[in-house]
Amino acid sequence: MGIFIKRPLALFSFIFLITAMLVYSASNNVKLYLSISATVLVLLFLILSFTIKKLRVKAVTLALCLLAIVFSTLHSYVFIGIPMADAEKYVGENTALCYIVDEEYSSAHSKQYCVKITRIGEDNLNIKALLVCGFDPNISEGDEIYGLAEIEAVQGNESEQLLTVYMEDAENCYIRRTSEGKGIFELLFSDCGIELLSGKLSDFIKSELFELLGEEKGALAMGFFIGERSDIPTDVTRNFQRAGVSHLMAVSGSHIAILLGGIEIILRKLRVHKNIRCIAVTAFSVIFLFITGFSLSACRSVFMLYAVYIGYFTYEESDPITSLFVSVAVIVLIFPHSSVDLSLWMSFLATLGLLTVYPIVEEKIPYPRKKKRIIRRLILIGRELLLTSLMTVIANMFLLPIIWYYFGEFSLVSILSNILITFVSSVFILSVPLLLIFSRIPLLCVVLRWFVSLVADVILYAVDFCSGLPNATVSLKYEFCTYIVLLFAVSMAILLVVKLKRKLFVLLPYACAVVSFVICFVIYGIFFSVPQMSYINYGNNELFIVTENDEFSICDNTSGGLGVYSDIFYEFELSYATEIEKYILTQYHGGHIITLDLLSQNTVVRSVYLPTPNSYADNTYAEDIWNMATEKGIDVFFYNSGDVLKINKNVKMQALLSNGNLNGKYICFFNENKSVVYSTPGYCNTSEKYDILILSDSEADSDKRYDLKALRAERIYITSKELTEQVALPSTENIFIPSTSKKYLKIEFEFD
């Protein structure tokens, strides 16, 4: 490939970017020492270039590369290190003056804003930060807030956030309305005027789309049009991620190509000169950036367009790869904290793959020319579907290291979902601004609103269908994934940098990675598929989690506390699973509705098993769970006490629940090899032989004493030390008792 051969500007930009990312979190001393060392080496290589003629070209090249390191390190020191050091001086309780720029979140309990701190104490500042204060309906963008605040220093992000300001009591804050009575131009040239007007324009577009399309489809339109996803429901965002099409809701090169490409085509049809077309499209791109609030992904795409246009003005043809590297380097120059922005790097890597590997594959797929009309059209359709599939694979493989590190799962249905949605999404992106433009023309507005709503329904249905397919995603949390991903990333980096005689060699890492994943998953499924169960006790809340390969099922024996969801999701994140197969309740509580709702928003829950209700309250809870689950596409089943339920391929469960005669529970998890029994003392059967017995005092009568000396079990686990005072146990060494009363207890077993 040799992407840096005859591309010195791309190489310089690449070194600048990598250095900026590596030194981002380094101390100021490290940045200074690195820049001084690199400067000394630059001078040394320059001296060598004058003294040894044979090494002149190589020495100058190395000097320029080191100069990029010096420049990047000093840039990070000046625009990140020094401001961060200044920000740390203001930690503590201070009187702050904050100028509100953008509202991020609002509820009846709290408000969070992006603000510009103009003064802390007696010192004038101009630092962007996050303001958190008590609820006050009178606070809005453009206001100034004076008040006593708790200041914390934090590392910056894409908003260059350096301080966090906490104002818990809004009544002690003095609010001054600074935006009232100001015209657009007066507001534009005021403090933070551009950000303020950008936020107001975005809010206006949001209110228009919500009014025209409703909240759900309006939020979807905001995501596709300007990349604003804050109002999209969590479960919809999750479905887009599982389907492998979450990139459609981030402003990228495809958005720029669709929106500004349409303007380019219109101007070209009108025979407008190329230079004038470039200027016109550039002007429209500035408006688009203003609408998006100058988001990093939008800036990268537009700056790349500018780099291409500069190439048009200076040369006959521009180089897209150089334009990509330069555009991202310019973003880091303007927004220093973007060097560690995840979305920027994902956009960069996906685009890099489409500019380097995709053209090699595309040129090997012949274009039908000498065919009959119908056959030619069919071949063209097949070719486009194949190219879309290849484009998806190439982009995802370039993103594989990031997907593995940050998300831990890979979408297997991304090819299908991209084929189904790519064209429809392009139509959706184009139709949203048309709806906004013609929203005041009655008949045309009705037609466009119906059409946009229909396209949104198609997108939501396709994404929901693809994400709901069995095994839509595969886990990358296995240990072998680490080695495969790292080897793939290193091999791809080498093949992109070196010059290949046969360019198709660049596909070798793809083939090797796919074969390696398949082999490892098959071997793991055959030899390491022993089912495992974890018993987890959080106080009086008890969970049973059964896993087998990537299957994850839960038996919830809790009282429905609000913390149950976080406990379940924490264990889910530790597993190899990408979805929850079964969620089984042994009792009813209102908290279970909240837990199931949160679980279904953040991951796929396939089925819910509920005990047959035996009271009016249980009937009410069961009906609420049924209604919510069926709306989310979750299968709901009822079971009776004593029924045998299949948890996964090799583990079954039988539960004996509380009845009028006995107070407590008996839950048995078993397969052909082993049984793990959870029981309260009243349900223990001394005539039965247990492999593993977990004895709990949950729902047991604390005043009653139990004689269990005749118990026969290989191992007995007592969940609390207090229970030993109620139960007479057999004298055996296989009894495990907590040394003290613990709020957290976790016991793990294998069904081998």
Protein described:
With 752 residues, this protein is an alpha/beta fold. It folds into five domains: 8-85; 89-180, Beta Barrel (OB fold (Dihydrolipoamide Acetyltransferase, E2P)); 199-475, no CATH class; 492-527; 532-750, Ribonuclease Z/Hydroxyacylglutathione hydrolase-like (Metallo-beta-lactamase, Chain A, 4-Layer Sandwich), CATH 3.60.15.10. Helix content is 50%, strand content 20%. The chain is built from 20 helices and 24 strands. β17 (666-670) and β18 (675-679) form a beta hairpin. The two termini are 51 Å apart. The mean pLDDT is 83.
Range of strand content: 15-25%
How would you sum up the major sheet?
Answer: 7 strands, mixed
Provide mean pLDDT, rounded.
83
Q: Give the end-to-end Cα distance, rounded to a whole number of Å.
A: 51 Å
Estimate the global geometry from the Cα principal axes.
globular
Helical run tally? 20
Radius of gyration: 31 Å
Number of domains: 5
Summarize the structure.
With 752 residues, the chain is of the alpha/beta class. It folds into 5 domains: 8-85; 89-180, OB fold (Dihydrolipoamide Acetyltransferase, E2P) (Beta Barrel); 199-475, no CATH class; 492-527; 532-750, Metallo-beta-lactamase, Chain A (4-Layer Sandwich), CATH 3.60.15.
Topology:
Layout: H1 8-22, H2 28-51, H3 56-88, E1 92-106, E2 110-120, E3 123-134, E4 144-153, E5 163-167, E6 174-176, H4 184-188, H5 193-213, H6 215-226, H7 234-242, H8 253-269, H9 274-291, H10 296-314, H11 320-334, H12 342-362, H13 373-407, E7 409-411, H14 414-437, H15 442-467, E8 473-475, H16 479-497, H17 508-527, E9 532-538, E10 541-548, E11 551-556, H18 564-574, E12 579-585, H19 590-602, E13 604-611, H20 616-631, E14 635-639, E15 644-646, E16 652-656, E17 666-670, E18 675-679, E19 689-695, E20 706-707, E21 712-718, E22 727-728, E23 735-736, E24 744-750
Parallel strand pairs: 3-5, 11-12, 12-13, 13-14, 18-19, 19-21, 20-22, 21-23
Antiparallel strand pairs: 1-2, 1-4, 2-3, 4-5, 4-6, 7-8, 9-10, 9-24, 10-11, 15-16, 16-17, 17-18
Helix pairs in contact: 1-3, 1-11, 2-3, 5-6, 7-15, 8-9, 9-10, 10-11, 11-12, 12-13, 13-14, 13-16, 14-15, 16-17, 19-20
